[in-house]
Amino acid sequence: MNAIADLFSDAALRALERDTPTPLYFKLYSLLKGAILDGTIENGAQMPTEQQLAETFGVSRITAKRAMDELAAEELVERRRGKGTHVTYEYSPRPVQAPLVGMLQEIESMARHSDVKVLKCRMQVPPAHIREELGTGGNDKVLQLERVRYREGQPFGYYMSWTAGLKKPVGKRDFQKSPRLAIFRKQGLKISRVTQTISATAATAQLADALDTKVGAPLLSLVRHSFRTVRGQEQLTDFLQVYYHPDRFQYQMDLTLDE
Amino acid sequence: MNAIADLFSDAALRALERDTPTPLYFKLYSLLKGAILDGTIENGAQMPTEQQLAETFGVSRITAKRAMDELAAEELVERRRGKGTHVTYEYSPRPVQAPLVGMLQEIESMARHSDVKVLKCRMQVPPAHIREELGTGGNDKVLQLERVRYREGQPFGYYMSWTAGLKKPVGKRDFQKSPRLAIFRKQGLKISRVTQTISATAATAQLADALDTKVGAPLLSLVRHSFRTVRGQEQLTDFLQVYYHPDRFQYQMDLTLDE
DNA sequence: CACTATTTGTCCGTATGTATG
DNA sequence: TCATACATACGGACAAATAGT
After folding, report:
1. Exposed e or buried b for every residue in A155-174, given b needs 16+ CB within 10 A?
2. Which of A125, A186, B22, B198 could cross-link to A22 by cystine, CB 3.0-4.6 Å?
3. CB contact under 8 A, A194 and B112
């Protein structure tokens, strides 16, 4: 009788509650869009009717209609009088990943509450694979940084980065005081998107030394790509590789059930 | 002259753009609240004036005022005529962590697009440390699950979980077909909050065997606590420990710069 | 003491967007 | 589609508290 209840969790059903002033039609639209984009409602399948949506989510039919109209405007669904609304978006599974949305500001906040030792800070021609990603020429020098972060005197993270597109020179002292992101921002480097990948790896001799652990010990590895937009084109401007000591640093996240 | 531009990134300044219909005052309020909660604006410090906010974010003074009034209503700031608005919230740094906000629905989506082999599925009295977290008695049996996930025939994740509060019995076959979360949801188990911690660890003999790797090899480790609310009290109802093969599974996330 | 600049509080009128029946 | 109610956002104007000259 009501297949919608199966599609959406109780939490999702509660997502339209009035705890944020975001318009109802937009919350419902976002919810449905998510279900279409992640393949929960398959291509060609019939969407719930306006009446069904209105009842399950406790909104007026006009509001449900508005949400569906927005989907139709993006050509995610097709609406036909008498036939109903059908999905016209083909879901294609991505490689095994657990995508998350985070906030860069919180990373900065973390950076502000730990100590840094700058091992290396110089302009350098990066190795080929980095050069390719940054899109710089064979002789172009970019900023190479190597740092170790400490908490209560103990090293917990080893940071290695290559940054292109800096206008003014920066010194070791700058990075000892303020977060890297804040410095780049002041230089006018506008980051438009960031991608992170977390994995695990074994400690090399160099890493074991820097993080005060044994060779071969498991480390949490993080690679961050930061992009800026140049003439409408997205371009990598910062490459960051971090190795964390798993006993002294862990990635903790809260997952929300709705939205 | 204008210290606000230093506080907020260019992306943050753009966060109030009209791409979502969420009220302007609420977006500004969220932005400022975040800066207070993560210690960017310290306790006792003076907030930007309504006039300054209005200019930097391109809104009217009324809108800026509304945002600040909301903060005052939550007692995060104190407002005094002629004096200005001052922060009254004391930031206390948490242990080294990179907090993130994610969506549980996306996890489910991932689960739906890989193959599962259920190694163990039975009611069992959990070991002491799990029993303590779940808050169950010394003889209470809860659901113990052990699974391996495959992608293209290769094992990438080893899942071990303990779940309390199930009403109806579940069988192996159930977990081979649909995601665990969907099954629990159908049973009426309402999860209210989820916490995840990611770390790295070395493979034991058992794990190496299940994931087709060598003993001592680095693995990505994930611990997930799922809570439900019982009579206003938050209570752990599911404990999940996952080990991922780092070559076959990586945690990828996109970070937004605004919000 | 007055005078001034700053900052928040309050009020108006108006336009637009949202949500309902 | 229409009429209605309410929230949001704007600019402008003035009052009231605070701090410094």
Report:
1. bbbbbbbbbbbbeeebeeee
2. B22
3. no
